[in-house]
Design a protein that fits this description.
Distance between the termini: 7 Å
Shape: elongated
Strand content: 25-35%
Structural class: alpha/beta
Number of helices: 8
Strand order of the largest sheet: 3-2-1-4-5-6
Length: 216
């Protein structure tokens, strides 16, 4: 089974809402926060939301922020609010912080205070980040149409089986493009290739097919 994480998403602009809705659609435990009541109301029918000012430590305590595994700081309209929020979340004990940056200087400050992942708002789409935050993917590329290319570790159920024996295409409709084993060169996904623990699999398929393959 794929892991489920509890994720606090701060900021419900275009980027933050894309991250939050993607995570929610993937079955992750998501709470989206914004201090703008109109944005909270706009998204409240689709995802769990709450209105709060995350620059206020007391507000984060009331949200039980320390109970979340991961936080995404998607504030784009105020560098100050972004940095203060990231610092407050780190102080609350959340070490896995993903923070959107709007400039090189902003990114540098976020890195210095301890944000683990810095997201370039100009190049990283919200839905891609949502998939990465979920922890099920090492990388994620959305292609035109319904297909995606993802990089994942071998699912537990598939360890020790070949691509042929796992009936990867027949059962799931996906294609394993290639496999990178630790200490070995990249290998194309031939039917007799055995999948091992910690192998990195490069997969092409539709989103529901890939998720089905991860679950087994």
């Amino acid at each position: 089974m794929a892991d489920t994480r509890s994720v606090l998403v701060v900021g419900l602009g275009r980027f933050g809402s894309a991250v939050a809705t993607t995570l929610d659609a993937m079955g992750q435990d998501v709470l989206a926060v914004d201090r703008d009541a109109s944005l909270v109301n706009r998204w409240s029918s689709q995802i769990p939301t709450v209105q709060a000012d995350t620059t206020d430590v007391l507000a984060l305590e009331q949200l039980n922020a320390s109970d979340f595994d991961t936080a995404v700081v998607a504030i784009g309209d105020s560098v100050e609010a972004s940095v203060i929020t990231a610092g407050n979340l780190l102080d609350a004990g959340i070490s896995d912080i993903w923070a959107k940056s709007v400039s090189k200087e902003h990114a540098r400050i976020l890195q210095r205070i301890g944000a683990r992942h810095i997201i370039n708002a100009e190049t990283d789409a919200g839905n891609r980040v949502g998939h990465l935050v979920s922890g099920n993917y090492m990388d994620y590329i959305e292609l035109e149409g319904a297909y995606n290319v993802v990089k994942i570790h071998t699912p537990i159920w598939a360890i020790g089986t070949t691509i042929h024996d796992a009936r990867v295409n027949e059962r799931f409709g996906i294609t394993i493009i290639g496999v990178k084993s630790p200490g070995h060169e990249f290998a194309y996904g031939s039917n007799d290739l055995e999948m091992h623990r910690n192998d990195e699999l490069i997969i092409l398929g539709k989103q529901d097919q890939i998720d089905h393959f991860i679950r087994g």
